[in-house]
What we know:
2 strands; alpha+beta; 50% helix; single chain
Amino acid sequence: MAEETVNGAPVTDGMIQEWADEAEAGYD
């Protein structure tokens, strides 16, 4: 797994999944 970071904080698969869910919910 690549070492992805946002503002210096590590990004986990769980965080990415949450972002994906939020993005999908935003498309109304």
